[in-house]
Design a protein that fits this description.
alpha+beta; 2 strands; 1 helix
Length: 63
């Protein structure tokens, strides 16, 4: 028996590499401590693209 594979699910996007000399110092992700796309001066909790994607999925599924 062949199992049905759901092709509609897509995983988290790969994190974009942050060049060491690109712009201002970046804030750390509050969950995994990886660099984010936000400068250190950003107020509030900053998330990297991967953690932001996962958090959005958790919020969408929490009903």
């Amino acid at each position: 028996m062949d199992e049905h594979v759901d092709d509609t699910y897509c995983g988290a996007p790969a994190p974009a590499p942050v060049p060491a000399d690109a712009g201002p110092p970046y804030a750390e992700c509050v969950l995994c401590r990886e660099p984010t796309e936000y400068p250190e001066s950003t107020k509030g909790s900053t998330l990297c693209p991967v953690c932001a994607w996962q958090e959005a999925g958790r919020n969408a599924c929490s009903g």
